[in-house]
Each structure stands twice: as C-alpha cells, then as structure tokens.
Design a protein that fits this description.
The complex is a heterodimer of chains A (about 170) and B (about 650). Chain A has about 170 residues and is mainly α. Chain A has 2 domains: about 1-45, no CATH class; about 75-165, Cytochrome Bc1 Complex, Chain D, domain 2, CATH 1.10.760.10. Helix content of chain A is about 55%, strand content about 0%. Chain A is built from 7 helices and no strands. Chain A has helices spanning about 1-20, 25-45, 75-90, 115-125, 125-130, 135-140, 155-165. In chain A, α3 (about 75-90) packs across α7 (about 155-165) and α4 (about 115-125) packs across α7 (about 155-165). Chain B is mainly beta and about 650 residues long. Chain B has a domain at about 520-650: Cupredoxins -  blue copper proteins (Immunoglobulin-like), CATH 2.60.40. Chain B is globular, with a radius of gyration of 27 Å. Classes of the chains: A mainly alpha (about 170), B mainly beta (about 650). The interface of A and B includes residues 101, 102, 143 and 152 of A.
C-alpha cells in the first residue's frame, strides 16, 4: 500500500516537473485531460447495449415494500400541494425537478415506473436497493449514493406521488 | 498467546456444554468464575437488562453503562465542555455553562438520581449535582441530553444533592461548605455562629420538568454531607447527615472530628412548603443562572435570577430536628419502607440506624436533649432503632435490595457488607478492589429496588488493570446479590471518579428513547429545513451561512466572498430523517470543536478566518459510502477585497 502511494506521488511529481513551473500551463493540462474524459463518455454512452436504469421503462414491477396495489384517479390538487411541501423539505436536497442531481429527477416518473414502485422506493429504500433489480441498478448509476429513508408516512409518500403527477 | 486463546476457547466450549446439560438452577456459591462469565455475558446484538448512570466525578459528566455487561454506551456532557459533541462549544449549548461567575467549563459531578412517581422510578429524568460551582442539572431520558441547569445560590460544595422526593416534587441540593449568607467580606475566623448552610428545595414541574428554587432553608454552619428523602410513611421528610458540628474553619481533619456525635437533620419539607405557601420566608436579593435547552429550537438560553426565598428553620416550629449520630456520618440512607434512616459514621466501626416511628414519638413527647441555634435535638436513645456492631471500618453508604437486606460500603476495610434490617445481623461480606466509596442497586433510592445486582464504585484500582502510567482508571465492580451470599461478577473501568450511580430497568427507559428530531418541529432561529432556503448573508463583518447536509453533500459546498476579519457563522441543519445518521462538520483552523448534528437538528459554529486562501470543510462522522466526498470549500479573500458573497452547489 505504502509503496503504491509512494509511486503515485512520484509519478505525479514527474508529471508536474514535465509540465514546467507556470500555473497557467498546469491548469491547461488539467482541463484538457478533463475534456478528454467527457468526450470519451459521450462517445461511449450511446454505444452501451443496455439502457440506463433511470431511462428504462418498467410498468409492471411494483417494487418491494408495503404498497402492493394502488389505483390512481384524477389528480387531487390539494393533495399534490401537500406533497410539494413534503418534497421540498425531505426530498429536494437530492432530487431536483428536470435535472439529474444526487438522485434522478422525479418528473415523468410515472411514464417509467408503477405508482407502487415509486412509493415503495420512498417508504422502503433500504430493502429496495438490496432486492429490487431496478433500484439496485439505479444505485450503481447514481455513484453508489443510496436513497435515504426520510421517514415519510404512507400518507406523505402518497401526497409526494400526487405532486409528481403534476410535474 | 495462541495457547491461551485455545484454552479459553476450550474452556468456553466446556462451559457451554456444561450449562446446556444443566437443569436451570439459580443458586450459585460464587466459587466458579465460569458462572460469573456467563452472568455478565450479553450476546452480540442483545440488550442489557439495566441502564446504569454513573457519575463522572471530576470529569463533570455522566456516563451510561449497561448492566450486567458493564459496557459503556455514552458519556453525556453535563457540566464540562465536550468537543466530541460540541457541548459548550457550539453557539447553542454555550449558555448551558453560564453561571453568576461567568462561563464555567468544568465541574465535579457527584450523585445522579432518577425521577420517581409514587416512590418508584419513572425513567423520565436523571438529576445530577455539580459540586464545585453549585448547580443541579437535569438530563432528559428521551434524548439523553442535558436540558436544564440551575445554579444554587448561597451554597458551596453542593454535595448533599441531588436526590428526589417520591413524586419528584423536589430535587434537593444541600451545601457541604457553610459560607456567609449573603456572601460578604469578613474574617474567616468569625465562621462560628456566622456562616450558614443552605439546603435548597428545587421544585420540578410535573408537566415539563422545569426546575425552580422553591425555598432555601438556612441551617447552622455545619457541613451537610449527604441526604435522602423519606418514603412511604416518612414521605414529606428529608434527612441530611452533618459533620463539623464543631464549626471549625481550619484543619478540619482534626478539628471537625472532636464531637462524639454529629447530627442527622430531619427536615419536614411539607411543613415548610405550607409555611412558604402561606407567605412565610424572606425574599433575598441574589444572582444565579437558570439555563434551559429547548428541544425544538435546539438552543439553550440562560437567564439570571435575582431573588431567592430563604427560610430560617427556627421560625417554623416542628419543621427541623437533629438526630444525634456518631462520628461524622457520611451516607444518609432510607430503606424502601421509609422506616429506617441509616447513618454511616465514617470514623466509626458501627452503623447507626434511626427509626422514623420513634422519631415521631420523641417529637410528640417533646423529649429534647437541648437545641442548636433554635433547632431541637432529640435524644439518641429515643430515636435509635438499632446498631450494626463492628461491621467494618469506615462505613460510607448503604443501599437496599427490597428483600429486607441492606448493603453498606466500608472504605477503610475495603468491603461491601450485607446485613439484615431489624435484626442488624451481618450476613455476608465481600472484599472490593480497592477502597470502595459508594454503591448502587438499581432502584436503590426508591420504594421498589431491583435487587439483583449491586455496583460497588472504587476509589483505587492499583494493579487491577493493565497499567497506564501513574494515572490508572477508576473502577466499578458488579456483584450478584440474588443469592444469600454476594458474588463478584465483573470489574469494569469508569470515567473520572464514580461517586455514585443510579440504575433502572432498561425496559422503563428504552421505548421512550428518541430516534430523530423531526424537521417539521425544528424551530431553530437559523434552521434551513428546506433546501430552497439555503443562503449566505453578510451583516457587516458577520457572515451567516444557512447550510444543509444530507448523505453525502453540503449545500452550499462552494462559498466565495468571505474576507479575513469576518466572523463566519455556520448554521448547519441535518436534513436526514433516518435513525443513526448524524453528520459532523468542521473547517480548517476553526478555533472551536466540530459539530455533531443529529437528524433534523441545527447547530452553529463560529469560524474567524485569519489567512487568505481556499479552505476546506468536511463531514467528520462517517455517514455513507460517499462520506469521503462530503466536503466543500470557502474562499477567503483579503479584508479589502471586492469579491461578492456567493454560494453554489453542483455548478
């Protein structure tokens, strides 16, 4: 281990030396490297055979947890408003609308997931990331950052789901 | 080493085989240590049967152990700053350590006692006294945090404290050292007849537990050493041991050991309460701190109180009597029935037991043996229930098992002696290693002790543990007292000096233990309970960062526009709502401790950057797989810089 660290340090210092003393140059070198990785990524992504878990559509999987069946009626605006309140306090730190953040964006979620799956993910994340194949893949896609159990009641989770329907 | 390991394994294996074959029998002669190992073994993942709250002595704190395993769960900061938990370091808890002498970062914590209802432990609060700068603290057993501290004026060496009455009507705090009341500039030599000993009765609100000094009894200038409440028939009385009834002010070692008998003071607090409720007593100007921590604002406030009600015992007839008790008694312990009051004359070989019934009869018959400063002295023979003769050397403190037995520690002969109430016969004695001070039976100070174990708290350990230089650990020893003979089961180290302890059946407490603080109930002035409200605000030289944290990032995590000379407040809210997911935070060069923030809680630390640069902060408590990624930077520019204050996350 120590040897490994030492050699990494050595390599790094060699790299620095070869770059010369100027700060500007160092910056340039670094950003070039970074650009490279991004281009690599964009090239690679379409090439992967499997769709990313966040883009996969599965409207049969109900997930693992307390919710086994749920029928959706017309959108209940009052419930959705309540759901937004809960969402802003307990979920927003990791889930942003219309943008991949720590976790996936919630808009359009019901085009990809069953309502039961969404509620089970909120209510029972610890078991979901261990047992549900989709949740497992999502965990890997999102850098191994697991969905936190924010202790929502079933009623709160239902309201959040209603809010998602309005997005 | 390997050999030892194998033999231990073989031994354990054998023990398991043996025990699994044996029919269940609960007797034990204490001869086999294999039985002892089994009795204290709590399997991984299993819970202990009792909580033990053991005083941290000169550490100023209160430690929480499990019995019978002797495992340490938590050190609750009470009277001393604790950098691990930011207690006394963060802006929220600094007021907890405020006193009339200013901020006091340390004390000497002594005698924890658990709240009671109908004479039985109810597991709501633990009270503990600070001895040096007299204070009483209350620990809430839903959070295991110190939530209230009240300073005790007119007191010095707050030692005969902090014991509660049967319904937690009062937590009582008596002074060990008598002092001029009110304090004034006078010759020490004029002690005798001029100094006073204050016994304070602090009421506890039955609803919210709020403490308030109801009255102080200004007693003669003796030393008031320990105390205990009456119970059952004697509920309404409180008993205090005294020494230095000689009223010596120098070389007490000799001069306070002259009288053959000192006193146990019997105080009829119900009579004084009535007197006070009818307008009795005198309001005296004073100055003492009352510090309260609010669970919803997560913040403590300190209020200086300016008045205290004092009572002269001579003015309340029938309220206070002296029971002569040999040889500078230390422990003052009342049995579960409330009939017997045991005085442990520490310079005597005998224990003196007074009878409450006889005391009442003697008062009724007005058979007095004189008076001291207007307080009647009862005749020793009239109140004596019995004497435990020549039981050991240097008796200190007694507890009871609820089965008619009492257990007394003897400091000089270093032993616990078991004896029978009523016959006063010694039934058993076991050595302690070494020099035992107090002892504790869970529920010992109540009508209903859980008479299964006694914990002896020793002052000296010498060779009992691996040496750690000149300073070695202090220690507790656990005895099984379920049989006729006591059996030593376990030694375990303690923090500071374990003066005394209080124990309770775990089932009474653990169901009420909180798992998180609710974000919706967070009323902290600087809370950010919604990620939309994150902001950084400048107010002159002050910068307030309203920050949130959740696995595994801070919001914001990049802050610019801070300048050298600014005073930067990090107000950090933990947005987690899951059990056991605290986050910590600190920044390079902070002249204070980290914060350790529980789910749903907000805490604040102050940083005064002194150097230009870009300085990192990070999560200090391993929180998740991406804990190492939980970090951020603050850019600090020169004092005259024009960089705008800005913050961001993920941009």
């Amino acid at each position: 281990m120590k040897i490994l660290i030492k050699s990494v340090v050595l390599l790094f210092s060699l790299l620095l030396i070869s770059c010369g003393g100027k700060e500007e140059k160092k910056k340039e070198g670094f950003s070039v490297k970074r650009q490279k990785t991004t281009t690599e990524k964009t090239v690679e992504t379409p090439a992967t055979k499997e769709t990313k878990a966040s883009e996969r559509i599965d409207l049969t999987n109900k997930g693992v947890g307390p919710i086994t069946s749920l029928t959706l009626n017309d959108v209940d605006d009052a419930m959705a408003a309540k759901g937004k309140e809960v969402y802003d306090q307990l979920c927003l730190a990791c889930h942003r609308i219309g943008k991949k953040f720590i976790g996936p964006a919630p808009d359009g979620i019901l085009e990809r997931r069953t309502p039961e799956w969404v509620m089970n993910m909120i209510l029972n994340p610890d078991q979901m990331v261990k047992e549900d194949p989709l949740a497992k893949d999502l965990l890997m896609e999102f850098n191994g950052s697991p969905m936190a159990n924010q202790g929502l009641t079933e009623e709160q989770a239902r309201a959040v789901l209603e809010y998602f329907r309005t997005l | 080493m390997k050999n030892i390991k194998y033999s231990v394994l073989a031994f354990l294996g054998l023990a398991m085989v043996l025990t699994s074959c044996q029919p269940k029998s609960k007797t034990s002669n204490g001869a086999l240590s294999s039985g002892a190992a089994e009795k204290v073994y709590v399997a991984p993942g299993e819970h202990d049967e009792y909580y033990a709250f053991i005083s941290g002595g000169f550490s100023g704190q209160l430690s929480v152990y499990g019995l019978p395993s002797g495992r340490l769960f938590k050190v609750i900061p009470v009277f001393s700053q604790d950098a691990e938990k930011a207690y006394g370091y963060n802006e929220e808890t600094k007021p907890m350590l405020n006193t009339s002498h200013g901020f006091v970062p340390w004390d000497d914590s002594h005698h924890p006692d658990i709240s009671q209802t109908n004479g039985e432990l109810d597991g709501r609060y633990v009270f503990i006294n600070g001895n040096n700068t007299p204070r009483i603290a209350k620990i809430d057993l839903t959070t295991f945090e110190t939530t209230e501290i009240i300073e005790v004026p007119n007191s010095a060496g707050n030692h005969s404290s902090s014991f509660v009455t049967e319904n937690t009507e009062y937590v009582v705090a008596g002074t060990r050292f008598s002092v001029p009341v009110p304090q004034r500039d006078m010759s020490i030599k004029e002690y005798k007849g001029n100094f006073k000993g204050a016994l304070s009765f602090i009421s506890v609100d039955p609803e919210d537990g709020g403490m308030d000094i109801k009255f102080q009894l200004l007693m003669p200038g003796f030393d008031y050493d320990l105390s205990h409440p009456g119970r059952g028939a004697s509920h309404g009385w409180f008993f205090f041991t005294t020494y230095n009834t000689e009223e010596a002010n120098t070389l007490l070692e000799v001069n306070a050991s002259q009288n053959d008998k000192d006193f146990i003071a019997a105080v009829n607090w119900k009579a004084i309460e009535e007197y006070v409720n009818n307008g009795g007593g005198k309001k005296m100007p004073s100055n003492y701190a009352h510090n309260v921590y609010d669970e919803h604002t997560h913040t403590a406030t300190s209020t200086m109180k300016k008045e205290v009600l004092v009572v002269n015992p001579a003015e309340v007839p029938g309220a206070v009597y002296f029971l002569p008790t040999p040889k500078s008694p230390h422990g003052c312990d009342v049995d579960p029935s409330g009939e017997y009051i045991v005085g442990a004359g520490k310079l005597s070989a005998d224990l003196t037991v007074h009878s409450f019934t006889k005391m009442l009869a003697a008062i009724e018959g007005e058979k007095f043996d004189g008076e001291a400063y207007g307080i009647p002295i009862l005749k020793f023979e009239d109140v004596l229930a019995g004497t435990v003769n020549q039981a050991g050397l240097g008796p200190l403190h007694t507890e009871f098992d609820g089965q008619g037995n009492a257990y007394t520690t003897f400091f000089i002969s270093s032993e616990v002696v078991k004896w029978k109430l009523g016959t006063w016969d010694v039934v058993d004695r076991q050595s302690t290693y070494y020099s035992v001070g107090h002892l504790m039976i869970p529920g010992g100070n109540s009508r209903k002790p859980f008479g299964k174990y006694v914990v002896a708290m020793n002052k000296i350990t010498k060779d009992r543990y691996l040496p750690t230089g000149p300073e070695v650990t202090q220690s507790a020893q656990l005895f099984d007292i379920s049989g006729e003979k006591m059996e030593l089961l376990l030694d375990f180290p303690t923090i500071g000096e374990p003066h005394y302890a209080a124990g309770i059946e775990a089932s009474i407490v653990k169901a009420n233990s909180k798992k998180i603080f609710s974000l919706t109930e967070n009323k902290h002035e600087y809370a950010t309970t919604n990620d939309n409200d994150v902001k950084v605000v400048r107010n002159g030289k002050e910068v307030h960062i309203y920050m949130t944290m959740i696995r595994s990032h801070f919001n914001p995590d990049n802050i610019e526009g801070v300048k050298v000379g600014d005073k930067v407040y990090f107000h950090v809210t933990n947005l987690e709502q899951d059990y056991d997911v605290p986050h910590g935070v600190s920044i390079i060069g902070a002249n204070t401790s980290e914060l350790l923030i529980m789910p749903g809680q907000t805490e604040t630390f102050v940083w005064e950057p002194k150097q230009v640069g870009v300085w990192p902060f990070y999560c200090t408590d391993f929180c998740s797989a991406l804990h190492q990624e939980m970090q951020g930077y603050v850019r600090v520019s020169p004092a005259n810089s024009n960089i705008e204050l800005s913050h961001s996350l993920g941009e």
